[in-house]
Amino acid sequence: MKKLLFLYTELADYFVNCLNLLAQDPELEIHLVFWPVKSEAPFQFSFNDKIQLYQRADYNKQTLHALSQEIAPQLLFCSGWRDKAYLSIAKHYRSSIPSISAMDNHWKGSLRQQIARVISPLTLKRYFSHIWIPGQAQKEYALKLGFKKEQILSGFYVANQQRFEALFRQREDYPKNFIFVGRYIPHKGIYDLWQAFIELKEEYPNDWTLTCLGTGSDWDQRIQHPDIKHLGFIQPQDMSKHILNASVFILPSHFEPWGVVVHEMAYAGLAMICSSEIGASRQFLKEGENGFSFAAHSLDELKNAMRKFIQMEEAQILKMGDASHDIAQSLTPQTWVNTLKDLI
Predict the structure, then answer these.
(1) pTM exceeding 0.90
(2) What tens digit of pLDDT does each residue of 123-134 get?
(3) Domain Glycosyl transferase family spans what residues (predicted)?
(4) How far apart are CA 299 and CA 166, in angstroms?
(5) Side-chain half-sphere of 215: how many Cα atoms within 13 Å?
(6) Can you say whether the dihedral through the CA atoms of 280, 295, 144, 94 is positive or negative?
(7) pLDDT tens digit string along 231-244?
(8) Cα–Cα distance, 189 to 251 (Å, whole number)
């Protein structure tokens, strides 16, 4: 029996789904330490019975070390480097077992990143033997931090294939409805989205609507309009009817390191509009094939992309949705599981 220890900060549904799939292997024993769920995204998770759970709040640095030594893992995964106790444990195991950190940052060349690049041999490389990134958008930074190609794992963020692919199979038509799924915070581009939609309705009268799922610090500042629905936070397992009631997904973020939701909506068979600053769009948005990109912050380009769908025949939108589903297959939860199994 091989033991894997995961030290996690804020859990997400897509990670839990991959972990549950990993736990189906009878030769693996999974241990998960995790932080409490955020109030703005109160996810409710269901875990495989084989996964042994530990609340981070119940442990200090010393007792967490004692727990790790009791488990004696053959592989250690850390979701980042924010928790100093997690780093201490990673450092302890660095030279004896695969010690992995996740990272979704893009290389921007900022002063902070330049410093991180220089001191990485004294910091990150002392804790981790491998770094796990979502995709190509993060590879340059990982290389600059001193990780070799064989130490860089790809495909860390993976959509729940089973859940969202089921929606693709259920889809019967393509309603004239755009959908946004994300937090209500400024850098998600929500104000650009709402303004662009309203201006487009005025400049080019049409019968399309916009549904927004999510909540956050700017919930009370949401813009009201007869054709915009604000539904608040919806548990992933309860999103089905809203996704099936839409044909085009929009993510207008000013900056998004990755954006698993892009993969999720691609699996569900939605055409899409994404800003140029979304990491996942490099893998799951093919220009003109399953959607359109636009320059972040540009209302005119966002409106133009939305106008293209408003003027498009349903058959063409259907074709784009099919293309999204096909493109989504390039990364699966089984790929994620295989990445870990290859290391142990």
Answers:
(1) yes
(2) 889 999 999 999
(3) 173-315
(4) 34
(5) 12
(6) negative
(7) 999 988 899 999 99
(8) 8
